[in-house]
Amino acid sequence: MPPxxxxxxxxxxxxxxxxxxxxxxxxxxxxxxxxxxxxxxxSDPYFRGGRFxxxxxxxxxxxxxxxxxxxxxxxxxxxGIPFNDRGERLIRRASIADxxxxxxxxxxxxxxxxxxxxxxxxxxxxxxxxxxSPPSEYPQTxxxxxxxxxxAAWAQGIVWxxxxxLGGRNLILFGDRCPAGVLRAAPGAAVDLDDADGARWLNKQxxxxxxxxxxxxxxxxxxxx
Length: 225
What we know:
Blueprint: E1 16-19, E2 25-30, E3 62-65, H1 69-77, E4 89-91, E5 99-106, E6 110-114, H2 118-123, H3 129-132, H4 138-151, E7 157-161, E8 169-174, E9 183-192, H5 196-206, E10 211-213
């Protein structure tokens, strides 16, 4: 359907799905932000930002994650990367500078709006446009996400199919509806993506998708004179 505004008088009946406590989630994030920390920077209502970010019109903090580590990597790092003449896709080192992937676990069951099926979307008065529209239309999807929050006061987030990892899932959690400390970091399950070990790990994870990153250059060691 075209990107029309949410209904003025109609009401949706969003379907609920439970994200169980202990479910492992993966999040790609900047190193300066703790893995379980929600992002409090609101997106502009009309420019930049993610599909369901909070905005000044509905200023909730939020956290995007995925149940699969490859899904989280593809959603964050593989946007708009073309294949070269050798049939490969290359990630620029600058695009992963200061990035880390962390495994997280909710300590409580969380109730999410499901947009996983066509029937789920219809219950939300929408169709595949809401979950597959390009970034240029994210201002409109953000408005729909806020409307769905109004329709479902119980919703602590939204889950929908990944467009970059078919069969995978994306989700967003709403910071204003999740209890403090609802996420914990899984011990030892974090990888810095911008060092040599991270490049090896990243290349192993993304090899099935013909995506790779060059390892960082080794700096020569100065010898004492």
